[in-house]
Amino acid sequence: MRFVWAVAAFVLAALMIGAGIAQRTVFQGPRSETVEISTEQDAPYLLIDGAVLNSLPGTQTLRAQGEGEIFAAYGRTMDVEAWLSDASYNRVTAAGEGVLDTAYVEPEIVPDEPAEGDENADAADDASDDEVVEGRSPVGSDLWLDEFQQSDILIAPLQLPDDMSVLVATDGTAAAPSRVTVTWPITNATPWAGPLIVGGGILMAVGVFLYILGFRHVRRSRGPRRKGLPVPPTEPIDLSVEGEDKGVISAAPTRRALSGGRRGFIVVPAVAVSALLFTGCTSDAWPQFAASPTPTPTETVVAPEGQQAPAVTKAQAERILDRIAAVVAEADEARDGDLAATRLDGAMLAARATNYKLRGAIDDYAAPAPVLTDPLEITLPQAFDGWPRTVMAVVDDSEAKTSSIMVMTQQDPWSEYKLTYQGNLEADTAMPALAPWYIGATGVAPDSPFLIMPPEEVAAAYADVLDNGEDSEYAAMFEAEGDEFRASVEADRKRRLEEFNETGSKTGSLSFSSAAGAYDPVALATLESGAIVAVSMNEIDTVKPTNEDAVIKLSGNPTAKTLSGAEESASGFTTTFGDQLFFYVPGQGSTEKIRLLGYSSDILSAKVIK
Q1: What is d(CA 11, CA 7) in angstroms, rounded to the nearest whole number?
Q2: Which range of residues forms the domain containing residue 347?
Q3: Could you tell me if 404 and 511 lie in one domain?
């Protein structure tokens, strides 16, 4: 009976091991599915729609082959379409049931209608044809969430949702790569292959054991049992006897020893085969019993109904800020205003232009502070699908124990983000509650009536407070406590006026005034229906002679001398400082006051009064 059970164990083990191996070999399906994308007409760009990438579940792998550098990037579909709106390209969409539809898209150019009888009508038509852009490189655009660039063959692992698309190109002039494929992994795990193989190995070992027990039983019970002859009594062996008469002890092994040796010989190969099969099983050959993760309660911020998508992600903002900082650092080193203009605009560019001029004329004039990039503590993108777009960011400076607040703006899909405002936050500045970066904030119109003061009036009102103090009609609307900029301006004006009166009060006069700057305000909404508002303001110092025979000399002021181009003037001088100010403006009905968050100040110009 033992042999019957042993044979049954062997057969069942062979079936189990064979079934497990078959699952990992002949019965295992393909590990991936690949779709080839082909186009009928060459174009410099290839747009692969998000629906194509998600036509099968799982991650996507994009492969593109061609000669030279191959470029691929992904971003929101609406952003990629906007970037391609003035160019010709091939677009691949999903037509359903695994069918791809490829179409050649040409830009829609709407020529300006000339006035009746305009002799330049033909010229206008020719100009409209020139609006089709050819040869624009997609490399380094701030619109892309990520980009890849490799030579001859590009492999890009992706995991994109339906609302994102992929752009494939070379240099924007030559045709896009013609051999493009998208591959998805296919789930073909065999969770019972491992248990079957290991279970079969164990069952085989059991069969071997049963076989040994059966063989041992047969050996012991082999032949008829007979009564043996009488055995003579055992005599002691005389070890002193030599030769043939000496007592003999047989060296032949017993049955127990024989059977034990065979068992070891048979069991070891069975265990070795089982171990070998066991080591060939990977993790997808076993059932997965991962514990369900325990959700952690987090504060939830729900986007208002109808709110548009945020302009950038946090990672995208970090990359944009790094690019801005690198270009600005290079421009600062070379005092290159044209290079700075590629990444700066508005009040920031005006301050840099003045600094470059002064550093070119004054040897020891200080360079401007660098643009901080790390760590990016706050990212607040505007939730807006159109242009221009705005992103506000706060970066900590652990060494200086302060933070930098800044505003970046992108004018259109083809422009890069430019830094327009930047100020310093004090260490104890309390920021208002802001939406997370993945939701973003709505932009607030300059004339918005939903704040206690429209953003376009904040700069002029604060200027009036600086000039008139508590006598200003707006003094009650601004928080004086903690406003270090206001305190420093008042102290500086008082000190300079006292110094001037000591020597020049009899022949001249020094006056101070403030006014709104030339640059438009930028405002993004907070969670309490208020807004963070960035504005520019000018502080003007005016010095005039009060005696007809007196002149104002700039011998001790190389900065004003360099900017004005004059050493003295009988009419006087004006010196303008540009301030970049960040305020928190509460919403209508709030009992809070307008609070200054951050600021920076730079000299802008010095002129002779005419």
Answers
A1: 6
A2: 307-442
A3: no
